Amino acid sequence: KASGRSDLEETIKFLKHTSLLIDTFTDMRPMTSTDDVRLTLNRLFLKYIDSWVIEENVNFRKNFITRECFEDLQSMVIGFERMVSLKLAQCPTGYICPARTNTDIVENFFGNIRSCFGCNNNPTYLAYTKAINTVIIAKNLTSKKGNAKKSKAAVHGALPYKCHTKKSFKKLRI
Fold this sequence. Notes:
Layout: H1 3-25, H2 37-54, H3 60-63, H4 67-90, H5 104-115, H6 125-138, H7 169-172
Helix pairs in contact: 1-2, 2-4, 5-6
């Protein structure tokens, strides 16, 4: 096989795996069990990218995704699976809707922590604990400078990408 052809095959394999991951996180169907097939597909994706790192490849450094992206993908898959197992352990009749999960509250929390330090990128332990206490006591988890904003429509989770508000047909008629 030519070198270009095997690279193309690997790219297609990568896109197939990432498409399955995207399908999981855009799915509105509820997860009611830790045996859900979508979690299994997520684990297969994790094994795939782990094997990509382990594989001896001369062009590994040049062709692989960044270390930060790799760690974010691992964190997303492992964290989501853990969240599902914790939620279902606490409430066996509950469910998780993958498309409604998001990290806005976490981003806002750490955004508020960072805003307590101003220009200081290297706070001390004492300064960090005071900042956390300030944010927790104030209970202000909406940052005006962050990329995650509070929305009345998304109180209980993120709205799906193609979510439209339903309007009555009476209002739509001319």
